[in-house]
Specification:
The complex is a heterodimer.
Chain A lengths: L3 E2 L4 E5 L4 E3 L2 E2 L6 E8 L6 E7 L7 E2 L2 E6 L4 E6 L8 E9 L6 E2 L3 E6 L1
Parallel strand pairs in A: 2-12
Antiparallel strand pairs in A: 1-4, 3-9, 5-6, 5-10, 7-8, 8-9, 10-11, 10-12
Chain B lengths: L4 E3 L2 E4 L5 E6 L6 E7 L5 E8 L2 E5 L7 E4 L6 E5 L8 E8 L7 H4 L2 E2 L3 E5 L1
Parallel strand pairs in B: 2-11
Antiparallel strand pairs in B: 1-3, 3-8, 4-5, 4-9, 5-6, 7-8, 9-10, 9-11
Classes of the chains: A mainly beta, B mainly beta.
Chain lengths: 114, 119
């Protein structure tokens, strides 16, 4: 079974609108961390936001927020007020307790339309 | 803000040759990692390194790969005899700690990558 599932290979959003990128995860470990990374066309991997499994509140980092629904095992990324520079590939990822590796999903390519 | 750096940005090599990819992790970080991303595919974990030894590795990280921290700042990935299928983007990453339940300790920060092309 896939550890991280991103079901949207591509998404379009109008500039200044909000967009939600979906992510579900699969783990039986009670301790884990969830991450979102952005990969622009230049190729680097940029950390956006983190959610710990024991965190009571949803994480926010500027225009990024993580809609964490633990019972549903979902960790959707919400980008508010989209900008043209948000056009990129977005990866959801997880690190489980006891492991150091981060497991990535297949990514969602977001395109922001002017 | 401190960042992970990698050199070279692009390396072209002939099949069967040895390559060394270099990384300088963030200075106060204790855990170091290598990942790779074959073009158009997802990012795959290769190895993690802590306290001067490999702490975790994937099935991909076979005998042709090795890692080393030759001094107090550099972290290297060596591929002994490159194959065509080793062509990929290789990312180095570092984190302050292992999984400890906080953004500061758990987050792995990635370098800009080295694009390896094996001909």
């Amino acid at each position: 079974a896939q550890k991280i599932t991103q079901t949207q290979p591509g998404m379009f959003v109008q500039e200044k609108e909000a967009v939600t990128l979906d992510c579900t995860y699969d783990t039986s470990d009670p301790s884990y961390g969830l991450f979102w990374y952005k990969q622009p066309s230049s190729g680097e991997m940029i950390f956006l936001i983190y959610q710990g499994s024991y965190d009571q509140q949803n994480a926010t980092e500027g225009r990024y927020s993580l809609n964490f629904q633990k019972a549903r095992k979902s960790a959707n990324l919400v980008i508010s007020a989209s900008q043209l520079g948000d056009s990129a590939m977005y990866f959801c990822a997880m690190r489980e307790g006891g492991y150091q590796k981060v497991t990535f999903g297949t990514g969602t390519k977001l395109q922001v339309i002017p | 803000e401190p960042e992970v750096t990698q050199t070279p940005s692009h390396q072209v090599t002939q099949m069967g040759q040895e390559v060394i990819l270099r990384c300088v992790p963030i200075s106060n970080h204790l855990y170091f990692y290598w990942y790779r991303q074959i073009l158009g595919q997802k990012v795959e974990f290769l190895v993690s390194f802590y306290n001067n030894e490999i702490s975790e590795k994937s099935e991909i990280f076979d005998d042709q790969f090795s890692v080393e921290r030759p001094d107090g700042s550099n972290f290297t990935l060596k591929i002994r005899s490159t194959k065509l299928e080793d062509s990929a983007m290789y990312f180095c990453a570092s984190s302050e700690a292992g999984l400890a339940g906080s953004r500061r300790t758990d987050t792995q920060y990635f370098g800009p990558g080295t694009r390896l092309t094996v001909l």
